[in-house]
């Protein structure tokens, strides 16, 4: 399947050395999410994720390859979600299904439901350090301001959105960026035709040109937590390991008139389920 909010997974299973089979299933990143925040693409709870994985018959230790219909867009979000829940063998198909077909690899219509079920573990545990809340991002701002940067926040949105020169596509959001963040538009990480991710040497040079030391902690953000994962995938390819995603991204951050420390709990799963509206943020500031 193609388009926003959609990624496919191809699972490989082997039994001894006698046979090898593949099957494809649709991994809907709009559905495999926590909808209680009122924000798109929020990382699901362990219970919700496990329910979806059981329905797809994807086990923790399966080799899972994520791919888009064309190029690279939503498949990195599927990759990062799976990794966040401890799946150790997750890959992204560079170039997507179109590249697969151009290589004359076999294809079939729809999900291959006839593939036999295989035993495996559904023992998933969410790694909460993979995800940052808005209060955690705000707490980073003094570090981002410092000349001796000890943590980076990279924004995958386009340059004009990042600089606030154009309005956000979602209504009700202010324009601009997180103070101290660095703009790394996701399409700069891809080839000119946006089909494949650039080579490792090209990615290393891009991050060097941006002044990013990827041996330090890096958090990625975007509009809704989707294309930020393209940054995370690119960073992983060049060897970065201390990575996290600001899950709410600008859809959450830009909904407030100014940075406002509303969430004080240490991890996303502990946050209050009811988001405080922007008006409440203003009132809170007036009382002080």
Question: What's the total number of strands?
Answer: 9
**Radius of gyration of CA atoms, rounded to a whole number:** 20 Å
Order of helix and strand elements from N to C terminus: EEHEHEHEHEHEHEHEHH
Strand content: 15-25%
Strand order of the largest sheet: 5-9-8-6-7
Poorly predicted segments: 1-6, 12-21, 260-288
**What number is the mean pLDDT?**
82
Please give the count of helices. Answer: 9
In one word, what is the shape? Answer: globular
What is the share of helical residues? 25-40%
Main sheet specs: 5 strands, parallel
Structural class: alpha/beta
N/C terminus separation: 51 Å
Structure commentary:
A hairpin with a 3-residue loop joins strand 1 (6-15) and strand 2 (19-28). Mean pLDDT is 82; it is low at 1-6, 12-21 and 260-288. Helix content is 28%, strand content 15%. It is built from 9 helices and 9 strands. It is globular and about 50 Å long. The strands form 2 sheets. It has a 5-stranded parallel beta sheet with strand order 5-9-8-6-7. Strands 2-1-3-4 form a 4-stranded mixed beta sheet, with helices on one face. Helix 2 (75-84) packs across helix 7 (228-237). It has helices at residues 46-56, 75-84, 96-102, 134-145, 159-163, 200-209, 228-237, 249-253, 278-287; strands spanning 6-15, 19-28, 63-67, 90-92, 131-132, 152-155, 182-183, 218-221, 243-246. By secondary structure, the protein is an alpha/beta fold.
Compact description:
The protein has 288 residues and is an alpha/beta fold.
